Amino acid sequence: MSALKTNLLPIEVENIERYTNIAFCQPSFYTRTAWNRAKKCVNKLIELGLAEPYDYGRGKGKYTLTPKGDEIGLGNVYKELVKIDFILTIRK
Description:
globular, two-stranded antiparallel sheet
C-alpha cells in the first residue's frame, strides 16, 4: 500500500447520499471541499450513464440526470453508487 493511500479515510454511505445531492445544487451554497467531493460522486454517476454535465448558467447547477437517472429518481440515484461499492475518500 502506498504512503498516499494510508492518509485516506472512506466516507460513510449517508455522506455519499449528501454529496450526490449537493452535486445537483448550486456550487455557491457549499464550501469548495464539499463541492469537490460532490463532483467525485457525480463523475461516477456520469460514467454509469445516470447523470450528465449541464450548465444552467453562472452560479447555477452544473449537472442533470439522464432519462435513465430520472427513472431512478434524484433521491435514490446515490444507491447506484452504493451498489457498485463506490468509495469516496477524504484525507485525514
